From TrEMBL:
Span of domain CHAD: 202-485
Species this chain originates from: Amycolatopsis bartoniae
SMART domains, sorted: CHAD (SM00880)
PANTHER family linked: CHAD DOMAIN-CONTAINING PROTEIN, SLR1444 PROTEIN
Official protein name in the record: CHAD domain-containing protein
Family matches, as Pfam families: CHAD (PF05235)
Gene3D superfamilies, sorted: CHAD domain (1.40.20.10)
Amino acid sequence: MPTAVTLRWLGRPTRGEPAELLRALAPLTARFEPALGPPRVHTASYLDTADWRLRRRGLELTHEGASGPGSLVLGAHAVKLTEPPAWPARIDGLPEGDLREAVAGAMSVRAIAPKVRSRTVWREIVLCDAEGAEAGRLRWAEATTLHPVRTPPVVRVTVHGKRRVARTLLESGEFEPADGSAYDDLLAACGLPEPRPTGITPGMPADAAVATALLGFADAISANVEGTLDDVDPEFLHELRVAVRRTRSLLKVAGDVLPGNLAARFAPRFKELGDLTTPTRDLDVYLLDFDALAAGLTVAGPAVLAPFGEFLRERRDTERKTLVRGLRAQRFTRLLESWRATLNGVVTTPTAHSTVDDLAANRLRRNAKRLVRHAKAITGDSPAEDVHTLRKRAKELRYALEVFGPLCEPGPHRTAVKELKRLQDVLGAFQDGEVQSTTLRAYAQEMLHSGLADAPVLLAMGELLAGFVRREREARDELTGALARFLSAFTLPVS
């Protein structure tokens, strides 16, 4: 047993009271004389992005301190703040230095905010043997979460010193080894991260399965509305759009199994929602890439593009106002309410005689055949519209594979999704190059007519345009090889 062991107390929390604490340590008091240190209080907010990017990377970032600016702590990195932090915060809102560099890759464009706020009361306890020599030290810590919910204290005891001290506690039956960190315990006490929806399962009625998947997408839309409205970070809008796209795709692929012509009734409304979100997202993408684009100029310095950057930000402000009005409108609220109510009715009272297993095999085969047929028809001379159609078909099949994944063999399913993603990367690069070049031409024309761009700005925008066109052509050249690779490697993971 190592010299430092962390245990979990299985009894009732002591609240740091000396008498209660000594009763909990009764297995030790017959052999050692305990000396209790004063109670101390430690407060911490555990920070992460909305989608737990830091935790997925094994990073535990905290803001510590009950009053004043406090400190940011990440492992060995600790940074004292000069003013109280404002959450949520993007990477440029964190102090420059090693800590910021350590989390930048994981955060990317996302903002961090407290996931759990905790208050820990702890005491140090020194154990002495009969001769008065120190035999070990304990750190008795009782942590209570204050946010997002209040929970009973989680008690962890860290033992430093002789092995027999920890062994004695374990043998008493009142302690157990503590797996994971204090953060793990706090998250478990709060029920976080929230469990993923169970989704569809084999044997479900086909209509109930499709409705269940669509309810999951509706939850994803709702979960990202507040962050989109508050403009916390651009990924909230992106995730909202992905959920809308998945909804539209599943309605197209399998919506006909829903009763009452539901797909035909609701599909136009979700297209409308997708159209509402598109302009702001397109401008987000431009602005996220803007600094890199400006830094890559060869005919001028990045400062030359400043008027174009300002133009994009003003355009985004205008488009965002339209987006916010739409998401706050009763029309959007009623859409989600009626959509959920309708889908819940299908889940609780299914009418389909076929199972989701049959549906998945049928629709995956049908969409795969259609994709392969389109892929084989693409040549170097195919018009751009045909390439875009192929991209849509690939996306529809990938979304269908994600929905019906629980019914597929895991290995073949992962391989099929991987091959689709590789093809989509090339198709997406071609699409992005064409869209960005078309949009940039329109922006340049508008700025010219409005007197917002002089010759240096337009020349710099021309260099950007050349870069977009070059990427578009490179993706088109790469497409032939990508299609050949896909057609030879892709196998549908259903019998």
